[in-house]
Design a protein that fits this description.
single chain; four-stranded antiparallel sheet; alpha+beta
Length: 145
């Protein structure tokens, strides 16, 4: 319902822009771009997005927990042994969001190496090379350029 209302408002704004005969073509195009950008941002912010996501690794006991708003990554271990179940370590504790923390900004993608993933900032296109591992010195993240 909300999305339909936004589309209707956008169409009405675009029709209004085209109906203004005194407005130059460049001004109309600019106005249409601004309206389209605003509608896209409203739709992005109103879409239900998961704040936290779990990613399977090829290790049956290991998962990666990603905060999709900040880029925080924890390595989780799931086992039947109580003393070994839970968070194994932090891969990234630095807030990677620049201006605002919106859920759904970050996503993990596996590589052909079972221990490595690519972290993508879906809004700005920035990427990080991520590795999980059993030992603390085997877990790291670094910015790629």
């Amino acid at each position: 319902m909300k999305r339909s209302l936004l589309i209707l408002v956008g169409v009405l704004c675009i029709n209004f822009a085209y109906s203004q005969s005194k407005m130059k073509e460049e001004e109309r195009d600019s106005l249409i771009r601004v309206i389209a950008d605003k509608l896209e941002m409203i739709e992005y912010k109103s879409a239900p997005v998961e704040r936290f996501k779990l990613y399977k690794t090829e290790n049956i006991y290991t998962f990666l927990k990603l905060d999709t708003a900040t880029g925080y990554i924890e390595q989780l271990q799931c086992t039947l042994e109580e003393d070994k179940d839970g968070t194994v370590g932090i891969i990234n504790s630095e807030d990677l969001s620049l201006l605002s923390s919106n859920a759904g900004t970050f996503e993990l993608y596996p590589t052909s190496n079972m221990y490595q993933f690519i972290l993508l900032d879906k809004r700005l296109g920035r990427t990080w090379h991520v590795q999980w591992g059993i030992g603390e010195n085997k877990r790291w993240i670094r910015r790629t350029y």
